[in-house]
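ok so heres the complex, two chains, lmk if somethin looks off
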Amino acid sequence: MLPITHFLYLAFALFIIGSAGVLLRRNVLIVLMSVELMLNAGNIVLVAFARMWGNTDGQVLAMFTIAVAAAEAAVGLAIVVSLFRSRTGTDIDDLSLLRD
Amino acid sequence: MTGQHVVFYAFAALAVFGALATVTRRNPVVAAVWLVATFVAVAACYILLSATFLAAIQVLVYGGAMMVLFVFVIMVLDVDERGRVEHRRPSRIARIGYYGSLVASGGFLVWVLLGTLARQYLKPGADLGGRPDFGSAEDVGQLLFTKYLFAFEAVSLLLLAAVIGTVVVARSHRERVKEAVRSGMAPEARVAAGLGEHEGEAGAIAPGGPTPITDFGAPSATGHDGGN
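and the predicted structre for the whole thing:
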């Protein structure tokens, strides 16, 4: 029987990689993919603890996370399309309207 | 080292490697394909945690629907490999500070998390002897439509809002002008909202380039300062 900690380490690694992608990459598409990675890491933790307690609630919450992630990806990609139409690029550093 | 261990380590390694490749690839299409590999590996981990229904959902929704969405958008946008990045290297001190603080904060996070985990005694998992259907569609559905019914309906509303929002946000400038004209908006109000008929057409064929009036303002001329 695998200890739950192994799954937590995996989720931890995925979350760190995803957050590094969000912080370091400037391509909006890759940033969105990194956000999906982080959400997946959260899902792994939910499912691992659901298994640990023998309780299905965590799996239901993970399903809700998947639904919210799908909505987030749809709206995010719509923003990317709109951005690409107006700026001819997907560089995140071009989005500085609120700063200057 | 049982078979379960071998399967877990194989798929965990694939998940981590796929995640690293997703974050580091230059070409968004290649990154999307690696992301699919990561999602499938995570689905395998769900099966190891006896969440079979969730594993199927993961492959269907993430590996199927969301990836098609991603790849479709990438293809429609026709992004070049670097996403049109103009490269200007920041100064050495700025780079050292940037990456140094990044490593320090990441190291701190690792330290706190490992310290917390090491102090926890985590059982390998509850005994599921009496419940062979743990994580099945019936098991999850039972909970989804009783205890979490309200949340389920709220999520359906959220998805509806997301669909409408996507359609509204992704409209082109010309479509918005057409809509404003059809709804009988006063011409002055339309011009004030940046939806003037001739203005939009003139912007679309302006010699300044393919950037008409936008929601995001004019492109900045300051260039970039940062890492990759």
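quick notes: Chain B touches chain A through 97 residues (CB under 8 Å). thats all i got rn
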